[in-house]
């Protein structure tokens, strides 16, 4: 099943049918993509989304990054709670969002190391950057 994991209904169906799932995404809120694939995501190195920080942060930026990372878990638990309940009801077992997304076979990420900060990734993550670029005039 090829899907965008922002709304995990396709992943719930893929787990129910026991078929492999391929995620096509730019990134997930709260770094759920990194958590689900067990990629290292230290707040002292990896900047949070919408902070405009680079991987070379000052001490104050690193502290801000740590606070944002800790607050993301509360917001994402609230936002993804309906999907966790739906998955638990449909699969007849307790499921978290991280566990649900961890069954992804391949993650096709629409980003590129040239434009993003370098980060450690797992072997099932494939960068396909440049697919959204227009032709040069």
Please give the order of strands in the largest beta sheet: 1-2-3-4
**Count of DSSP strands:** 4
H/E topology pattern: EHEHHHEE
Instruction: Classify the helix fraction into a percent range.
Output: 25-40%
Average per-residue pLDDT, rounded, comes to: 84
Q: How much is the radius of gyration in Å?
A: 16 Å
Number of domains: 1
Largest sheet: 4 strands, parallel
- Which structural class fits the helix and strand makeup? alpha/beta
Gross morphology: globular
Distance between the termini: 36 Å
Strand content: 5-15%
How many helical stretches? Answer: 4
GO molecular function: UDP-glycosyltransferase activity
Family: Belongs to the UDP-glycosyltransferase family.
Subcellular location: Membrane
Organism: Cuculus canorus (Common cuckoo)
Characteristics:
137 residues, alpha/beta, 38% helix, globular
Explain what this protein looks like in three dimensions.
The structure is a single chain. The chain is 38% helix and 9% strand. The protein is α/β, with parallel strands linked by helices and 137 residues long. It has one domain (2-41, 54-127). Helix 1 crosses helix 3. The termini are far apart.
